[in-house]
Amino acid sequence: MTENKSQVIKNDPWFGSYASRAEGMRASEIRALFAVASRPEVVSLAGGMPYLDYLPFDELSELVAKMLREQGTKAWQYGSAQGDPHLRERILDIIRLEHITDAQADDVVITNGSQSGLDLITRIMCNPGDVIIAEDPNYVGALGVFRSFQTEVVNAHMDADGLIPQSFEEAIKTSIAQGKHVKFLYTVPNFHNPAGVTMSVERRPQILEIARKYHVLVVEDNPYGLLSFEDKTYPALRSYDADNVVYLSSFSKIIAPGMRVAWMIAPPGIRQKLVLGNESAILCPPNMSQMTISTYLDNFDWKQQIKEYRGMYKSRCDAMDDALHTYMPYCQWNKPRGGFYMWVKIPDGLDAKAMLPRAVTARVAYVSGTAFYDNGQGADHMRLSFCYPTEDEIREGIRRLSTVVDDELST
Ligand code: PMP
């Protein structure tokens, strides 16, 4: 593991006093890039920021002001640790789109973004040294959480159809043979961040069967599931199995990440612990944000808006795919069927992490594949996001990137 020396505060009087769990904490490569990538002259293909301009800001602001006048005492007050009952009801309409038809509002727990949900599930399930099986590459924010609880992440491999069942089973067996406790599988089945791939419908029951066989919980993290580029959504793993799956999704990518409102659906025992976890970590999710989200859901055609986002993200994905074919045909990638990301293999011998400063000088930013591993792997990949820049900016960004890669190849 590489220590980022720039993060060490000189002469820190508390050096030596920190809990061992804090030692593993470090800034993600993405956060470190944020300031650079936000400069106006840089085309950022780095972040996973949703494009918000389709939101009906003016009308929504008026409706939120009305909501605050009428229900201010609730919005400004503490609320339920499980989350606002009205919003939990509304969420049932959303998850039905992913074939989850048997959940009740009482099965839903609201969290401060899915990030907080990942923290909660790890907090209640894992002791230091416990194993979490995760896809390779892995969502960087989840890796940070797993590290902070001193768990061991064991990688299982993916191909173009997502997580490979045999690799998942192998990872369980090897860990058990070493006397370790395998607590859960962490998977992003739809439009994976960063790999862009989607678990095939055939594989979903196979993965669940293996998990049940070894009594391993499945944590299904699904913030992108509704952002499909096809005319269908994939059935959530939770739709097959209510007892063995904890499902997470979020309003961050379909409405607005600034609200920090997401949800989990969990079987009763786990749900109870999640609510207690919420209580001890934050007392309750913010009423103000939850009621703002409900105001939007109650007054606007949110399904239509998601449809528009899907069309827009698809066009941006197409633009990136075209530009890669035009300017960097020597790279390899799978064209995603939804979501925000392309996972691009660069030519042998190049190092995406080492190349990044030169890319920034050429006014384009991406995330090096190394951010998505805990062991230094990934330098042969870049994660390119097509969610925020316009189609023209994406084409220009890829053109700039190709000049950097071409230079590297010719030296
Ligand atoms: N899981 C995945 C796979 C993500 O990509 C993200 C956001 N980038 C999150 C969880 C966290 O989302 P939220 O904004 O709801 O905390």
UniProtKB/TrEMBL annotation:
Give one Pfam family: Aminotran_1_2
- Look up keyword Lipid biosynthesis and say if it applies: no
User: Which cofactor names does the annotation list?
Assistant: pyridoxal 5'-phosphate
Point out the coiled-coil segments of this chain. Answer: none
- Quote the CDD domains the UniProt record gives: AAT_like
What protein name applies here?
PLP-dependent aminotransferase family protein
PANTHER family in the record: AMINOTRANSFERASE, KYNURENINE_ALPHA-AMINOADIPATE AMINOTRANSFERASE, MITOCHONDRIAL
What residue stretches are annotated with the Aminotransferase class I/classII large domain? 59-401
Q: Which superkingdom?
A: Bacteria
Q: Which UniProt keywords apply?
A: Aminotransferase, Pyridoxal phosphate, Transferase
Answer whether the UniProt record assigns the keyword Lipid metabolism to this protein: no
Recorded GO molecular functions are: transaminase activity
